[in-house]
Design brief:
Helix content is 0%, strand content 53%. The chain has strands spanning 12-15, 18-31, 34-41, 48-54, 63-65, 70-78, 80-86, 89-95, 102-104, 110-115, 121-128, 136-138. It contains no helices and 12 strands.
Length: 149
């Protein structure tokens, strides 16, 4: 990130060490306590960017990736967890401690972010190609073996 995280003022986003120009599109409410500011890359239409803020003690829905070439989840600020389930394998990333600042979530895998009880969490989500309806499935009926966080 090349400037302070103030989503509606974001002009570029650091991607692999290079500032990429972005333009704000809209803010969407995901679930109570979770908000996503959507951006488009102005010089690369092959992907888009979401800057997601999770309020203290809240979490994103469990989402299964159904479509897309690449989904990159990236920790930006705050404190919390990212859980990624691929088949039987569950990996939990604890932020800000984890050395893995970005994680590629494959098609067929599920993911969930959770903010710490006392601080918010901000993360990025890059979708290649850009997000379209049907890319993610919110998993509402979860068996014990599918739980993430």
């Amino acid at each position: 990130m090349s400037e302070k995280i103030t989503p509606k003022h974001l002009r570029d986003f650091m991607l692999e060490g290079i500032p990429e120009p972005v333009e704000f599109v809209e803010t969407t409410a995901v679930v109570p306590g979770v908000q996503c500011d959507v951006y488009r890359f102005t010089q690369d239409e092959s992907k888009d960017l979401g800057i997601v803020t999770v309020q203290p003690g809240h979490q994103t829905p469990v989402q299964r990736v159904l479509l897309g070439d690449k989904t990159i989840e990236g920790f930006l600020d705050g404190s919390g967890l990212l859980g990624v389930r691929t088949g039987e394998h569950l990996t939990i990333y604890r932020y800000p401690e984890s050395a893995e600042r970005s994680v590629v979530v494959e098609v067929g895998s599920s993911m969930q972010w959770q903010a710490a009880p006392d601080t918010s969490l901000v993360f990025s989500e890059i979708c290649e190609p850009p997000y379209a309806a049907g890319r993610f499935e919110n998993v509402t009926e979860i068996s014990a073996s599918e739980r993430i966080l």
